[in-house]
Amino acid sequence: MRRIVSSPEEWACGILISSVHKNGEPREERFELAFGGAVVEYWGQNYTPLAPLSVRITANYARDDIVTGVSLSGEFSLPCSRCLAETSIAIEGDMRYLFTLRNSGGGDGEPAPDGDFDVIELDKFQAELEMSPYVWETLILNLPEGVLCKEDCKGLCPVCGGDRNARDCGCAADDSDPRLRVLKSLL
Ligand SMILES: [Zn+2]
Ligand SMILES: [Zn+2]
């Protein structure tokens, strides 16, 4: 099984800077990104894609800067944090990135527009905004660290390892802790 830990090469999605409307009107692109059978590795676990990632990217000028928005939705499965059963989740993500020439000598020195942006410096000779690293970032920042197959998942028995959702194995939970066992024998 191939695991990916950063944006795969096939995800290359460049926006030509010359194609962004000068009148401030947003330019929008929608597309899907496939995982090619690979799983996403993050938080030390595997997220199995159940569908391609739906992505929407917008780009518009704000003064001399370009504000881009990355919105995505996807479906993954990952092991339940308690019983390890594969559990599917829907994820949504929304991030904004501001590309600026300001600090590389091409801007007008005015402060950046207000907002919650990650600021990326543009090279004056750059013709394209390569968005795939930001699509990847938007994805992983919205992956939950853990998930439960159901709210009251009983988990695996620490004594016999059985799935306590499927069967009550009857192991006494107290006996799993050797310190308690010692205490009990003293009583
Ligand atoms: Zn579970
Ligand atoms: Zn048990």
Mean pLDDT value: 88
Q: What ligand molecules are bound, each kind once?
A: zinc ion
Query: Could you name the ranges where pLDDT drops below 50 across 5 or more consecutive residues?
Result: none
Order of helices and strands: EEEEEEEEEEHH
Strand content: 35-45%
Rg over CA atoms: 24 Å
User: What's the total count of β strands?
Assistant: 10
How many structural domains? 2
What portion of residues is helical? under 10%
Secondary structural class: mainly beta
Coarse shape: elongated
Termini separation: 52 Å
Give the helix tally: 2
Largest sheet: 8 strands, mixed
What does this structure look like?
The chain has 187 residues and is mainly β. It has 2 domains: 151 residues, no CATH class; 32 residues, no CATH class. The chain contains 2 helices and 10 strands, in the order ββββββββββαα. A hairpin with a 2-residue loop joins strand 6 and strand 7. The N and C termini lie far apart (52 Å). The mean pLDDT is 88. The site of one zinc ion has 7 residues, from loops.
